[in-house]
Amino acid sequence: MAAFGSVFMPEMAISWFDGTQWSGTEVVSSSSLQLHPGAHVLHYSSTCFEGLKAFRHEDGNVKIFRMDRNVARLAQSSELLSLPKVDQALLSEMITTIVARFAAEVPARPGSMYIRPTHIGTEAAIGKAAAPTTTSCMYVLLSPVGDYFAGGDRALRLLLDDSGMRCAAHMGMVKSGGNYASALRPTLKAKAEVQADQVLFCPGGDVQETGAANFLLIDGDEIITKALDSSFLHGVTRDSILTLARDAGMKVSERELRIEELLERAAKPGCEAALSGTAAVLAPVGTLIHQGKEYPVGNGAVGATTLKLRKALNDLQWGVSEDKFGWLTQV
Ligand SMILES: Cc1ncc(COP(=O)(O)O)c(C=O)c1O
Which NCBIfam families match (predicted)? Predict the structure, then answer.
C-alpha cells in the first residue's frame, strides 16, 4: 500500500486571483504547476492548506465530510496570513467539481478520498518580505487513501515537551506549511531519542497538541481537552468527536489541562488518551514520556472508549448511521 497522500488523481481544480478577482474553476493536470521562482510563497511562505475527506457509501453515493468547516478554516488561515480573501463559494465549488469528476475513484470503506485545498501567494516580488502578495492561486488536489490502521491498532507513544513550541504562539490556529516545518526537528529528535511517535507540545506545562493532531484525555465518562484559543489548530475532528460524545451523554470539559494533571489522571486505571485528526480520526495513545520517565495511560493499551468514539464518527461518515448534524455534502 502506497504511503498516505503519495498517490494523486491526474487532475486538480484551480483558480487564480489576479489582484482584483478570482478566475472561475478550471480543471487542469495535477502533475505540475507553473510559478515564477520569485513567487511570494517560495520566499515568504504565504501558504495555507486544508485536509478533508470524501466517503463512498454503500448505496454508491459519495459524500464530503464537513466541507463548510474546512472552507471556513482556509479562509481564516488566508486572512491571518494576509493572503487575498478566499471566495468560500468558489472554493466549495472547486472541491465538489473535482470530487464529482473522480467520484468513481473514491475507495470503498475503509478507504476514502483525501482532499487537499491549497492557497499560495504567486506574486513575483522578492522585495515583499514585509508586504503581502497581491496575486494568488488556489488548487484542490485529490489523493485516494486506504485504511490508516491497516497494520493494526497500536497505542502511540508521545513525548511531552514543556520547553519547546510547535510554532510561533500567534500562528497556532493557522494551517500553514511553516508550522509543520517548525515542528519537524523536535519530532524527529523525539523519535530518535525516546522512540516517540509524536511530540505533544506543552509550552510552560499547557497541554496543546501534536505536530498534526489534537489531544484528548478520556477519563471514564469525561473528555478533557484544551479550550479553543489562538495557540493551536481548531480541529474539525476534535469538534466532531466532542459533539458525538456530548450526544452520547458524556461530559466534555474544554479547559486548560496542565502536564501535572494529565500525568496524575493518566495513571488511573481505565483512563485513555487519543489524538484526533482527519487522517486517523482518533488514534489511541498508550504512553506519555516526560523528563526521561514513561507513564502508561491507563493500562497502556488501546482504549475501548476511543474505539467506540472512532466507530461512531466513521459510521456517520460512511452513512451507516444517520447524518443527524447535517455534516455530509452530496457530490
Ligand atoms: C496541527 C494540527 N492540529 C490538529 C489537526 C486536526 O485537525 P482536523 O481534525 O481538522 O484534521 C491537524 C490536522 O489536520 C493539524 O495539522
Answer: ilvE_II, PRK13357.1
DSSP string computed for 212-239: S-EEEEEETTEEEEPPP-TTS---HHHH
Question: Would you state the cell numbers that stand for residue 201, as one nine-digit string?
Answer: 507540545
The CA 233 to ligand 1 mean position distance, Å, reads 6
pLDDT tens string 99-109: 999 999 999 99
Residues 6+ apart with CB under 8 A from 216: 223, 224, 225, 238, 241, 273, 274, 275, 276, 282
pLDDT at 160 over 70: yes
- Measuring from each residue's beta carbon to the nearest atom of ligand 1, which residues come in under 6 Å? 51, 209, 212-214, 233, 235-238, 276-278
Q: What b/e readout covers 21-50, taking b as 16+ CB neighbours within 10 angstroms?
A: ebeebeeeebeeeeeeeebbbbbbbbbbbb
CA of 131 to the centre of ligand 1 (A): 28
Distance from the alpha carbon of residue 198 to the mean position of ligand 1, in angstroms: 13
Catalytic residues: 175
Can you name the residues that pair with 298 across neighbouring β-strands?
none
Task: Indicate the helix (H) or strand (E) that contains 312.
Answer: helix 304-317
